[in-house]
Design a protein that fits this description.
seven-stranded parallel β-sheet, 418 residues, alpha/beta, globular, Rossmann fold, eight-stranded mixed β-sheet
């Protein structure tokens, strides 16, 4: 598809956003500067399927600085920022195939377009790119050295593919890096999810009944930030250890059926299907606002909600009102898609600096180790993960303590007791 010429205002706006984000991405900047000198990705073609935001733009620019030929498409129809697309295409010469709000057919056609460069490495968020390769463009698989995956949902899908011996090339689970999920999923998702809800609704959080479904790293972050704004937080969990942790963190723990009866806000963060289901909706509080912070729009059973409703209308940008047949009203933000990106701007650049540094260094690692890896899902190498943490601390003006030789010897001994 030919790139459409866009207005100068849109291009300038996108360029300003990209520069603004880069100011808070010093680790990625340091990788760019090193790569400009040694060009470790020269001759490598990289196809990426990611949320098209200013932070993502800086990752693609960094890959290009390393010598890679790159192409980008969106990983969610409502997470694309059109001004960033314009700037990437016209200022940075990064071919970007995405448009906010496009339909399902167009969305998947964009994925096929980025595969037209016949990539050596894929960069994914949700595994749609990898899945499309394995189902529709299998002739390209022999050319691929490896891939990376950004999010929990995608890693789950890829591990299932590997278990079934269906995965045809090695993939690095960037999401599982400590400098990714402990910060991006917790602090990034926490802040950006609350930000998306507040932008969409302009409602007060303090004093409300706020239900978080799922207490993984994302759920922890959302619960913490909602509580910090004065909401009374209830957690819904299926895992007894996580449920216990939520309770000891100070939150109520209830079944979804019970939590729905008094919920002012519900946020899903599970990566699973229909965690807010028909029987929950039948008892949900009048005026409840539903949103999702998992990757796919399957966590709220929207099909059942449609059937239960007599009317549906848009009442604010990104907010749809469903009036149920018994008169109750339920509101859904961003079509049940990622609320932090459909109604907000996604994670702060500060945390994406670490996440996308993991992506960049994992691409470099794959380019170097392509013949030494089997078709499986791998963690980010520990030395890269820890190196990113050290660089981030240094950029923040923090200092690490150093072990003395005596302390190292003590930690490695077994014969010294009380």
């Amino acid at each position: 598809m030919a790139t459409v010429k866009t207005s100068n205002n849109l291009v300038e706006q996108g360029e300003n956003k990209i520069t603004w984000a880069r100011n808070k991405m010093p680790v990625l900047q340091s990788i760019s500067e090193r790569w400009k000198e040694n060009q470790p990705l020269k001759g490598v073609r990289v196809s990426a399927c990611l949320h098209v935001t200013p932070k993502t733009a800086n990752l693609l620019i960094t890959l290009k600085d390393g010598g890679a030929e790159v192409a980008l498409c969106g990983s969610n129809p409502l997470s694309t920022q059109d001004d960033v697309v314009a700037a990437l295409n016209e200022v940075y010469q990064v071919p970007t195939h995405a448009k906010r709000g496009e339909g399902k057919e167009d969305f998947y056609n964009r994925i096929l377009e980025v595969l037209d460069i016949k990539p050596h490495i894929t960069v994914d968020d949700g595994a749609d790119l990898i899945n499309t390769l394995h189902s529709e463009r299998r002739e390209l698989l022999d050319n691929i050295s490896g891939g990376t995956e950004e999010t929990t949902t995608g890693v789950t899908r890829l591990k299932a593919m590997a278990r079934d011996n269906y995965l045809q090339y090695p993939v690095i689970a960037v999401n599982d890096a400590m400098t990714k999920h402990m910060f991006d999923n917790r602090y990034g998702t926490g802040q950006s999810t609350i930000d998306g809800i507040m932008r969409a609704t302009n409602y007060l959080m303090a004093g409300t009944s706020f239900v978080v479904v799922g207490y993984g790293w994302c759920g922890r972050g959302v619960a913490k930030d909602a509580s910090g704004l004065g909401a009374r937080v209830t957690v819904v969990e299926v895992d007894p250890v996580r449920a216990l942790e939520a309770s000891l963190d100070g939150f109520e723990v209830k079944s979804m059926e019970e939590a729905a009866k008094n919920a002012d806000f519900v946020v899903t963060t599970t990566g699973n299907k229909n965690v807010v289901d028909k029987h929950h909706l039948e008892n949900i509080k009048d005026g409840c606002i539903l949103s999702n912070s998992g990757h796919f729009n399957v966590e709220i059973n929207l099909e059942s909600l449609e059937k239960m409703s007599k009317t549906k209308r848009t009442v604010r940008p990104d907010v749809e009102e469903y009036q149920l047949k018994d008169g109750r009203k339920v509101y859904v933000i961003g079509e049940g898609r990622l609320v932090n990106l459909s109604a907000g701007e996604g994670h702060p650049a500060d945390v994406m600096d670490m996440s996308f540094s993991n992506q960049a260094l994992s691409v470099e690692y794959l380019a170097n180790e392509k013949t030494n890896l089997k078709n499986d899902v791998y963690p980010v190498p520990k030395h890269l993960d820890e190196g990113i943490a050290e660089l981030k601390l240094k950029c923040m003006g923090m200092e690490l303590e150093q072990l003395t030789e005596e302390q190292k010897e003590y930690l490695n001994s077994w014969d010294v007791g009380t």
